[in-house]
What we know:
With 212 residues, the protein is α+β, with helices and mostly antiparallel strands. The chain folds into 3 domains: 1-58, no CATH class; 76-148; 152-211, Helix Hairpins (Orthogonal Bundle). The protein has helices spanning 2-22, 29-42, 47-58, 76-95, 115-125, 150-178, 181-186, 189-211, and strands spanning 104-108, 127-129, 135-138, 143-147. It has a 4-stranded mixed β-sheet, with helices on one face. Helix 5 (115-125) links the parallel strand 1 and strand 2. The relative contact order is 0.07. The model has no long low-confidence stretch (mean pLDDT 88).
Amino acid sequence: MIGTEINNFIYGDFSSRYIELIKTRKNGFYARKLLRKVLIILHPFLPFLTDFLMEKIFKMEILEQKMPRIRQFKENQKVENILEIIDTLRTYREKFQISKKIILEYCIINDKFSNAEIDIINKLTFGKWLENKELVIKTKNFEIAIKVPEELKKEQKGRELKEIQFLKSEILRAEKILTNKGFLEKAPREKIDLERTKLEKLKEKLAFYEKK
C-alpha cells in the first residue's frame, strides 16, 4: 500500500505536476530543493536508493539531514487552482488529440488570475488567454471557456456528415422493411413494433444533427 502511494506520488503529482510548475522558473534552485526534501521523506521506505541519490546529486549524507516539516502556506490553494486548470486543459487536448503545435485559447469565467499565473498556465498547456464563452467546462472550482480550434471543428463536422449519411441509409432500410407486406403479415407484432421504435429514434437523431 505504502509502495503504491509512493510510486503514484513520484510519477504523478511530483513528476508531472509540481516539477512541471517549478520548471517555469528561471533556475533549478527550487527543483533541487524540492528533490532533496523528497529524498529525505522517502528514505525510510527506499533507504539504499535515496542514500545513493543524495550522495550523487547533493554530495550529502542523507542520515545527517533533518526531516522536513510539513507546513501550510497561503499560496498552497493558488498552486492547486493553477494545477486544476492545467489538468483540465491538458485532458481536453489529450481527449481530442489536439497537436501541441496548436495554441489552445481559453479563459476562466468570473475569476481573476495574475499575469504571472496565466503565464505559467500558458507555458504548461501550450495555451493562450482569450476571452470567450464558446465551450465551457465546469471543474471543481472553475468554469473554463475554451475556443474550439478550427481543425477540431472541421473534424467534428466531417464525423457529423458521416453520421447523417449513416442515419439516412438506416432510415431507408427501416422504411423499406415496414412497407414490405410480407414482413408485416409474417413477422411477430413485437418485431414490427421494435422496427417502428428504431425508425422513430433514427429520425429523432437525424433531426438533431440537421438542426445543428
